[in-house]
Amino acid sequence: MTNPVPQTMGQQFGRRSWAEPWKIKMVEPLRVIGREERVKALDESGYNTFLLKSEDVYIDLLTDSGTSAMSDRQWAGMMLGDEAYAGSRNFYNLESAVQAHYGYKHVLPTHQGRGAEHLISRAGIKRGQYVPGNMYFTTTRLHQELAGGIFVDVIIDEAHDPQSMHPFKGDIDLDKLEALVKREGAEQIAYVSLAGTVNMAGGQPVSMANLKALRGLCDRHGIKIFLDATRMVENAFFIQEREPGYAGKPIADILKEFCGYTDGAWMSAKKDNLVNIGGWLAVNDWELFEELRNLVVVYEGLHTYGGLAGRDMEAMAIGIAESVKDDHVRARIGQVRYLGELLTDWNIPIVQPVGGHAIFLDARRFYPHIPQVQFPAQTLAAELYLDSGIRSMERGIASAGRNPKTGDHYYPKLELTRLTIPRRVYTQAHMDVVAESVKAVYDGRERTRGLEMVYEPRYLRFFQARFKRL
Ligand code: F0G
């Protein structure tokens, strides 16, 4: 049915054609500190890469969030900030860009993605309702839970298997969803929380066919679908690459078609939209919009700035238009895939197929001797930093947190360390350095011991937790 997953970008486009559609105009020098200093820095940060100082980091692959390089056009747009409290021209530019490229009717700016998640969760969830989704995301699920919702994972089983080569591991298992609706009743479902691509599964896409079928199911039961559009442009690339009928379609068209089957979206513009700060929330329903517009002034700012400066909204409006261009997305994912190919060639266990925004090292297979309660993925992130000063992020048991009812750890099937690639920032040679460092850590894996958590914050513990070497 669907096209097989291409193993390399070279296979599909020829090795050269993913080259970046831009050249570098301004550079930021990198600092490399010695091993002794790295040992000290890691110790002081409690073995948590979130607590490292950025100046102690060489290549920073902590996240692709807010870490992109803006274009000369975006920087020029920053100078056109209309810093009026109300009705800034830049808001209307942002509104038009979201309407043009995502297709939703009503748009609100927010300070970043979780601001939008907060509002949609408050407005869309009644206490005790279920929120089915294609795997959880940390901040998304927390806001759903704080609003009284109960998150239920309805992603296909393949998503939890790092070695499954399913081309659309972000798809929803419609049987799981149907069973939930049958068991609890449609009125007990707040909405479907659909993410494209799925961050925690490895940046895996959702197919258009799955969404169409989901729309059918939801229409039968009167359930709304809200989209986490944070990396939806990258999802559209995978549809173009893998789904029959989409090979010749521009990514911009695929994006708009996809959004057209949903009722609204929230966005962390710090990813796809190529800005350092910002987000938005957009819906089609006027009544819901009214409620959101009431909430935005309480928690974010007036509905025409939502916690952002005019210049931020201008950079976002320009970034949206740049982000949907085929050559941009191809180069972005081409670079991620380049790193994935190097690691695959060296038999290093990573999540396959390689997703949109990051390489996810499979810490279970990397450190089979470290049990999950000893934080293998956190350990791997620490080891990578020690080896080369490269910063990565844990996406395993520490990120998963605890079940609010029982207080037990969630034990996610996926225990991963994420090498997240910022957009338009690092070069191919940087990717070579990263691959070599992962290889060095892999070669020393048998001598590596796990960690113990010695400080645990109440919410989103992975950001500020502290660990000790066992
Ligand atoms: N949804 C997804 C899929 C995300 O990846 C993020 C953030 C958010 C929502 C929240 O957006 O950070 O702007 O408030 N992900 C970052 C990451 C933090 O590193 O993956 P935010």
Describe this structure in words.
- The chain is of the alpha/beta class and 470 residues long.
- It has two domains: 193 residues, Aspartate Aminotransferase, domain 1, CATH 3.90.1150.10; 252 residues, Aspartate Aminotransferase, domain 2, CATH 3.40.640.
- It has 17 helices and twelve strands.
- β4, α8 and β5 form a beta-alpha-beta unit.
- α2 runs antiparallel to α15, α4 packs parallel to α12 and α5 crosses α11.
- The longest helix has 20 residues.
- Bound molecules: ligand F0G.
- The site of ligand F0G has 15 residues, from α5 and α6.
Q: How is the topology of this model organized?
A:
Layout: H1 9-13, H2 35-44, H3 72-78, H4 89-101, E1 106-110, H5 113-124, E2 130-133, H6 138-146, E3 150-153, H7 174-184, E4 192-195, H8 208-221, E5 225-228, H9 232-242, H10 251-260, E6 264-268, E7 279-283, H11 286-299, H12 310-323, H13 326-345, E8 358-362, H14 363-366, H15 376-388, E9 393-395, H16 397-400, E10 416-420, H17 428-443, E11 451-455, E12 466-469
Helix pairs in contact: 2-15, 3-12, 4-12, 5-6, 5-11, 9-10, 13-17, 15-17
Concise summary:
This protein has 470 residues and is α/β, with parallel strands linked by helices. 40% of the residues lie in helices and 11% in strands. The termini are far apart.
CATH superfamily of the largest domain: Type I PLP-dependent aspartate aminotransferase-like (Major domain)
Radius of gyration: 21 Å
N-to-C series of helices and strands: HHHHEHEHEHEHEHHEEHHHEHHEHEHEE
Poorly predicted ranges: none
Q: How confident is the prediction overall: mean pLDDT?
A: 96
Structural class: alpha/beta
**How do the strands line up in the largest sheet?**
1-7-6-5-4
> What is the correct CATH architecture of the largest domain?
3-Layer(aba) Sandwich
What is the number of helical segments per DSSP (H or I, 4+ residues)?
Answer: 17
